[in-house]
Sequence to fold (415 residues):
Amino acid sequence: MKALIEAIEFYFPENALGNEALAQEWTSLSADQIFERTGIRERRVAAPDECASDLGVASAERLFESGPCNRESIDFLLFCTQSPDFFIPTTACLMHERLALPTSCGALDFNLGCSGYIYGLSLAKALIESGQAQKVLLVTADTYSKFIHPRDKSVRALFGDAGAATLVTGIEADESLIGPVVLGTDGQGAENFIVPTGGMRRATVPDAHVVADADGNCRTVNNLFMDGLEMFNFTIRVVPQTVRTLLSKAGKSMEEIDLFVFHQPNAVSLEHLRKKLGIPGEKFVVALEHYGNTVSASIPIALKNALTKGRLRSGNLVMLVGFGVGYSWGGLLLKWLT
Amino acid sequence: MTYREFYAALELIFQLKPNTIQGTEALDDLGEWDSLAKISFIAMADAELGAAVSAKALLACKTVQHLVKLFDGLITQ
Fold:
């Protein structure tokens, strides 16, 4: 039994935050300048009462509506998020109930950001190929907007809220259709991308002071902090290394890869990686202009985008690489079959 | 890389006209020297000079000459 991706759907909140609105607030950059610097024109923002689980459930319902399977056939739900509904219970259990999945179905949350889709596919592959599941619903969703201070330009222009649902199915096949997989972690980078309060280590601080950094970006200890420079240095160090390790493990060359779909942090990072790795533009997917950096949903959104535009075809060998908060990273090859 | 090529790369980052930068300027006087501009600079150093730039070293730079000094020997007349 081998695992493969059978279907992907995604869902965005209704509210769009465009560069024009940001430019009016910030005044130091025009809408076009924000686009030139980020590659993003708008990003979706969840409503105050809209959680990552809502985006996840909506994307899963779209997947069921598209018809690849009955919900009764799902035997495992994996939910990747860094914005759970509650500490307790597991958000996947709540989603299980809303999606009316069978009680014989396993369900768990896992907390990862930009590498989450790779880890999710790795887990789904392991569940299927070990005989523990046949149809895994992998949902990746986040609402980073709720962590971001409105006057923190360093992150507000970049991140968008979204949910994506991926159906991973077991089929009889001789060759691996998802894999090999390369994973990595370096906790030394943890402080470079963090929401310092709200967990067990440090409670949310009521009436926390707003502090401006050297670039004039404002935040409190309750908000997301990202050291963009350190994250970029990590990206340009780790991603090329991951690509090389993956190719070596697979016994493949760059030329044999039909499509490269990386996590979508911003256009500058993506273009730099593309050039550094020598990937031709037609093989490299960039899909963040209307969504922003959607964290663990960014890769499935980009994959689905490529499929819809005819850039992803049956038989293609695709490389996925996710990298970011943690630091955590991973890459895998997959054979796309329809 | 020559000094002129280095200044031209900076002009691109700051979206300035060619030959604007002479090498004596303070970075804040050139335009928006925010985190995205700094990321573009690190990308340029990686691509054009094959050099890594630590965030700490870059944050300490306040002038164009400070940036030049990050790449001792790699930028020439």
In short: Chain B has one domain: 3-69. Residues 45 and 77 of chain B are 17 Å apart (CA to CA).
